[in-house]
Amino acid sequence: MTTSTSARKSLQTTLEGPVLRRKYYAQTMDDSAKGRKVAWCSNNIPGEILDAMGVTAVFLENYATVIASKRLGSGFCAAGEKVGFSQDVCGYARMLMGYVLAKNESPEAPYGGLAKPDFLLVNAYSCDSRMGWFAAMSRALNLPLHVHDGLYQPDRGDDSPAAVAYAERELRNLITFLEKQTGNAFNPEKLRERQKLARQTSDIMYDINQLRKKVPCPMGAADMFTAVWPAMYLAGTKECEDFYKRLLAEIEDRIAKGTGIVPEEKFRLMWSGLPFWYDMSLINYVEKFGGVVALESFYRTRERRLPPQDTDPIRDMVLSSIRQRSFPMTISGSIDDLVEAVEEYKIDGVILSFNPSCRMLYVSQRELQNSLEAKGIATLGLECDMADERTYSEGQVKTRLDAFCERLLAKK
Amino acid sequence: MIKEFNRVLANRHQVAAEWKKKTGGKVIGVLCCSVPEEIIHAAGMLPVRIMGAEEENTEADLHFSTSVCPYCKSCFDQALKGRYDYLDGLVIPNVCNMIKAMYGFSKLLLKIPFVYFLEVPQRLSENGVDFFAGELARFARALQVFGGKPISGQALTRSVSLYNENRILLAKACEMRQKPVPLISGSEAQEMVLASMLMPKEEHNRLLAGLLDNIGNRGDAPQAGVRLFLSASILDNTSFLGQVEECGGMVVADDMPSGSRYFTGLVNERERPLHALADRYLNKVACPRKMLPEERLAFVSAILNGADVKGALVYSMRACDPHLYEYPILRQYLGERNLPVLFFRGEGTEAERGQHKADIEAFIEVLRG
């Protein structure tokens, strides 16, 4: 059993991340108490639209990582399994189904639990788990569920009128649903403001990630896995933008002073896939060898945001998401993306996490590992669930990390 | 005549390769029930369902980890072993995470000239039907370019009609397993459905029509067993249903992609063909990936009506999330209909049979009282 499960952060600004998160959850409770409508959402539901309609969004996958990081995952997962959800399904979903359906069997919920939902919103296009999970929750809680679809486009970039029209209609359907649930009118001006701020923030994130190429590493994954939270859940707010401005300034300062993560940086690693939220201290483990996990593949901002694509904020949202190169959707795209990052960030080795219950990412990991090895890039594959710590064997994982770090040092 | 379906299934690669040699046409592999085969047929090509095999995944194991969907892995293993070398094209729809990932993997690792990703909306809606109809038009254009031949409106109308006829015939044939003294077994019914996915529909319709004309005189009718309902994710061979029969049971009603989901729901022949196809393939294929529980349970309810089953089997592939999430809901629903349920977490391997056999035997004993 590890004594410390959270990662040791090197930057002062990062320490503000958990404070913002706690504040956000407290705010959702407060909103609910004041009668503002609360939506439980899957990731990829556009929070900016909800905000523009006076709806408080609670993102359940994020709450799942909070539970997992407090090492409560197994208790909640077991509760979810007890009500019939297979150990094979997403650890996040099992935890939340345990929270919803088996409260008496579950541990005490972090932050005093979640704000009571009025309705549920799920994104249909990215992950099978979300659909099944939210559909089951909708029945269990007897709450309305809106399914929001979008385009998958593995080859990206199809902005044909039909594709744009479909995506646009889906967003407008979401707005219609929200109008019906809340009685509030959609405020396009508010959405436009949030989009503007979100663009600015995303560009700061891009700049930060560019600076992380520097040697010694000014900001590693131990910080970024925490610091990415505001960008995911507070995007388009001044609070979020200010956080990243401070983070950028601190990174620039560290670069100017030549401050790295370890006293003498001997090798640089990348983390591919989701981390093991219940033991984030693992990210720091390589530091005793002079190593640093300099980059994480999953949350990386890959390019500067496109300027507004249309004066209508909904059409802008659709066109930007289609035309923007974001997360790669095919195995070839993922390989290229990883290899490019290895070169640009001067990475010596890649740790690939194999999270079996996250099918979307898991399916590619073996081939990514094959491709990296074929190019002479050292890799280590670790198979553990991202949320359910019962799948984790700390001793075994660390023994393998020891051997991996020794291998990298020997190559130097 | 039933033996002919078995022959097609057992020799599926040979059947497709022979068709190709004889006609000079192209063979197009499809994954999942969401690809309108009618369009491929109207292009003068033969659509064949991609299926795995009960053998070790020696090639696919090099590219995929242990917990990847056993069905997708097995299909890919077969392709990597060269069993699908006769394919000219492969169509992969936007359905579950595993199947859509196969698009990128197929382009990277297989040498198939035409690999097409069919964008399929992920929820049932009118907006989805309009968009999907447009995607089907785009798919038809891609096939025309690849095949070098136009797809005429008449050809498409004929294909729609031919496939509807197949659905009607399959439904009638599958009803034969529900007779008090069944005229065909559950595994034979599944064999007919699987064969339909692998051979020219004209020929399959001819076989089915002949079978329906003569089935009343069948001398080797199967033994009646304890009547069961089966809800399954992917079962691309008849081993499981055969085993149920060996244990004294009989699947007389099913909810599976290699069963009733393949033929339930006709294409509206009075509508514009592509729009009608979009409506059928989006809204009437009862897959839990895009159908919500209320609609799924309505489908199951229709299947169960009149089937007079004594118990239910639920078989979900290990990594099949849509079915795994649905299971607690389905179990509750079946329980409310006083149907005992036996659940299987499947791997699709021969090795799991021993454990399954013991479980099925015990379940059937309980049902017999």
Defining traits:
heterodimer, A: 412 residues, alpha/beta, four-stranded parallel β-sheet, 8 strands, B: alpha/beta
Could you explain how this protein is built, in words?
The complex is a heterodimer of chains A (412) and B (369). Helices cover 51% and strands 10% of the residues of chain A. Chain A has 412 residues and is α/β, with parallel strands linked by helices. Chain A has a domain at 13-186: 3-Layer(aba) Sandwich (Rossmann fold). In chain A, the strands form two sheets. Chain A has a four-stranded parallel sheet, with helices on both faces. Chain A has a four-stranded parallel sheet with strand order 6-5-7-8, sandwiched between helices. The radius of gyration of chain A is 21 Å and the shape is globular. Chain A starts with 15 loop residues before the first helix and ends with a helix. Chain B is of the alpha/beta class and 369 residues long. Chain B contains 15 helices and eight strands. Chain B has helices spanning 2-10, 12-23, 37-42, 70-80, 97-109, 126-147, 153-175, 186-196, 201-214, 239-246, 260-263, 273-283, 293-304, 321-336, 353-368; strands spanning 27-30, 46-49, 89-93, 114-118, 226-232, 249-255, 311-317, 341-346. A four-stranded parallel sheet of chain B has the order 2-1-3-4, with helices on both faces. In chain B, helix 7 packs antiparallel against helix 8. Chain B is globular and about 60 Å long. Chains A and B meet through helix 6, helix 7, helix 14 and helix 15 of A and helix 5, helix 6 and helix 14 of B.
The strands making up the biggest β-sheet of chain A line up spatially as: 2-1-3-4
Described by the principal axes of the CA atoms, the overall outline of chain A is: globular
Number of helices of chain B: 15
Distance between the termini of chain B: 36 Å
Multimer state: heterodimer
Q: In what order do the strands lie side by side in the largest sheet of chain B?
A: 2-1-3-4
Q: Nearest-angstrom radius of gyration of chain B? A: 20 Å
Give a count of the beta strands of chain B, DSSP E runs of length 2 or more.
8
CATH topology of one domain in chain A, which one? Rossmann fold
Secondary structure class of chain A reads alpha/beta
Mean pLDDT of chain B: 96
Structural class of chain B: alpha/beta
Order of helices and strands of chain A: HEHEHHHEHEHHHHHEHEHHEHEH
How many helix segments of chain A? 16
Kindly state the percentage of residues in helix of chain B: 40-55%
Low-confidence stretches of chain A: none
Shape of chain B: globular
What CATH architecture label of one domain in chain A applies? 3-Layer(aba) Sandwich
Element pattern of chain B in H and E: HHEHEHEHEHHHHEHEHHHEHEH
Give the helix proportion of chain A (percent range).
40-55%
